[in-house]
Specification:
Blueprint (H helix, E strand, L loop, with lengths): L1 H23 L4 E5 L5 E7 L9 E7 L6 E9 L2 E6 L12 E4 L9 E9 L2 E12 L7 H16 L1
Antiparallel strand pairs: 1-2, 1-8, 2-3, 3-6, 4-5, 4-7, 7-8
Length: 156
């Protein structure tokens, strides 16, 4: 019985080391918050793609009244790489904006500029995105299985 407990703990320790090693080898995500805390921007692997080279940004508005977004710009080293306007997307929904297909590069500075109307006034915010290492990242297939399990529980 004592040997069984030791083996179980050794297996758990090995699994945690493997999981930690996998997580530390994943590219960092980019996170930025506006100066007043109105916006939060994340640049993460796209969960819909199922491939490591597909990344997308998500924008979160942190106030009560929903703004009317006029333009979102994605800059790398102060060079505009992508822009989205109401004609391109429904920016009032503030959904994901596909801005790149590659993980963040250490030699590039990432900035997002957001232009919006709120309470009759036009605003512009530049958000610098910082790299954040992730610990204990779930592999894509585990995340997919988890989401399917959650949907199954909701429908029951």
């Amino acid at each position: 019985m004592k040997k069984l407990k030791i083996r179980v703990w050794m297996i758990i320790a090995v699994l945690l080391v493997v999981w930690g090693s996998y997580s530390l080898n994943q590219p960092p995500i980019l996170i930025g918050v506006s100066n007043k805390g109105e916006w939060k921007v994340e640049f993460t692997p796209s969960p819909q793609a199922g491939r490591e080279d597909q990344w997308a940004s998500s924008f979160q508005w942190n106030k009560e009244a929903q703004p009317t977004v006029k333009k979102i710009s994605w800059l790398e080293n102060n060079e505009v790489m992508s822009e989205s306007t109401p004609e391109d997307d429904d920016l009032t929904a503030i959904q994901d904006l596909s801005v790149g297909n590659t993980p963040p590069n250490d030699s590039i500075d990432y900035i997002t500029k957001i232009h919006w109307f709120d309470q009759g006034q036009e605003h512009e915010e530049s958000i610098t995105l910082k790299k954040h290492r992730r610990l204990f990242v779930a592999p894509q297939f585990v995340e997919t299985m988890w989401k399917k399990a959650q949907l199954t529980l909701i429908w029951r």
